[in-house]
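Box 3.1. Reading complex inputs
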Amino acid sequence: MELVIINTGCANIASVAFAIERLGMKVRVSDQPNEIESADKLFLPGVGAAASAMQSIREKGLDTLLPGLTQPVLGICLGMQLMGRHSEEGNANCLGMIEADTKRMRAEGLRLPHMGWNTVQFPRQSALFEGIDAGTYFYFVHGFAMALGDYTLASCDYGQPFSAAIGKDNFYGVQFHPERSGAAGARLLHNFIHNL
Amino acid sequence: MLARRIIPCLDVKDGKVVKGVQFRNHEIVGDIVPLAQHYAAQGADELVFYDITASSDARVVDKSWVSRIAQVIDIPFCVAGGIKSVDDAAQILAMGADKISINSPALADPSLITKLHDRFGQQCVVVGIDSYFDADSGTYQVKQFTGDEARTKLTDWQTGDWVAEVQRLGAGEIVLNCMNQDGVRQGYDIEQLAKIRARCQVPLIASGGAGEMHHFKDVFEQADVDGALAASVFHKGLIAIPELKAYLRSLNVAIRD
């Protein structure tokens, strides 16, 4: 199986690669259109600001390629937010695979960014979370989030409910960091690689 | 519900984990990678690796171990020590660290906080603060270069003011090392942490003084910190993380299982 991490020029690519390798799989990091198009499964990681990540994606000419992909793609953290239409963070137009916008979190009386381990709930069943119980903790680090919608596969609550995971057709995204979420995160990556 | 974090801190010197008392007399505790694996398996919520010699020696952390840790660890970790530029931080984050923490270099050049924020995002930028309670003046004062006693110096900053300033500049998290308590295991400085909490809108991590399990309960309940960092109680086996987490859960503190 050809696994490719799309090189967005952001940090955290190494930790995602290591997490996949801990599952006994090989993975390549690439920003080459032919390598991305021929992969079986793709990861779109990202940390940092949406606007600078989108700029990097446009400079690499990937902004038109990525929305047209047909194989499973997993966006992670900022990578998930980039799959939406627009992000309030730096007023960035995103890739638009999913009809959702990313907005600054308004966690009344709570500290931001939302940083640490929080629990998820499942509004509907998804192969991505097979073998993972509702109430399981995942590791979150973010100050912007997507609201709940038809695309929500998992929800989390921090002052307000928001999408912890999304899915539409072949596009999936998780707001948390599966590569840093212990055994539960490893199971989710396993599910993405083997069940979807 | 967001869980309170239990964070073992591994002070690193020349590639080994060390721990001193009140920042002095460092003794070797063990190798980095097996210790990190051990704590992750025990249920630590996050790890901090603090190269305590780096800022003082005017050199950046020896980075090879960052990558070795990232390969084996499946919980978040933060690297501190001698990160003086955006490029230093970029290298460490690229090797797999989740966050970088700056302390003395932020005091030397506060604009570094903003540069790191703009490049990597607020969530990556932790500011460590070494705070010393001066009993004569009754004030909390920020110290710099605490990794090397000969170079340690008092800054012009009072702790509360520096806490406000680093947030204004873009810090995403603050680790408050209460120096009077460090390594003596008499409990966290609840009074100081509660005062700082009132001025801190980003996550606040308590550091210095953990000796018994109830110290963790006290600091979560009374100072409302997001995480509690400790070193010697874990390294010396005085507190086992599974027991600590079970104890806190039994008292209805939100703790990851």
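In summary: The radius of gyration of chain B is 17 Å.
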